[in-house]
Amino acid sequence: MNQELEQYFQFFVDYRQKNWLEWLVMAKFTINNKTHSATKVSLLITNHSKESRMGADINMKEKVEKAIEFVEKMKKTQKEARVVLRKA
């Protein structure tokens, strides 16, 4: 489990490793929603006897705003990376 968490955070946490807390809730959901090999059901079903919700009730405007915010953040990070690489 620790190896899976480490791999998950390596994919999503930025290179400064300052935003791991932002991804913690999603990591918890992902792990709890994963089908366990022994039980063939997820921890959410085992513990709560119900399927997980994937956030389909969030309105489209909020999704679009979050997506735009994410794209802008990625552009900024890439720009900063280019500057650092040029200096190196």
Number of strands: 0
Q: What is the typical, i.e. mean, pLDDT?
A: 78
* Proportion of beta-strand residues: under 5%
- Low-confidence region ranges: none
Shape assignment: elongated
Order of helices and strands: HHHH
* Termini gap: 36 Å
What does this structure look like?
With 88 residues, this protein is an all-alpha fold. The protein folds into 2 domains: 1-55; 58-88. The protein has helices spanning 2-12, 20-33, 43-48, 60-87. Helix 1 packs across helix 2. The longest helix has 28 residues, at 60-87. It starts with a helix and ends with a helix. The mean pLDDT is 78.
Please tag this protein with its features.
single chain; 88 residues; mainly alpha; 67% helix
Short structural description:
Helix content is 67%, strand content 0%. By secondary structure, it is mainly α.
Reconstruct the topology from this structure.
Elements: H1 2-12, H2 20-33, H3 43-48, H4 60-87
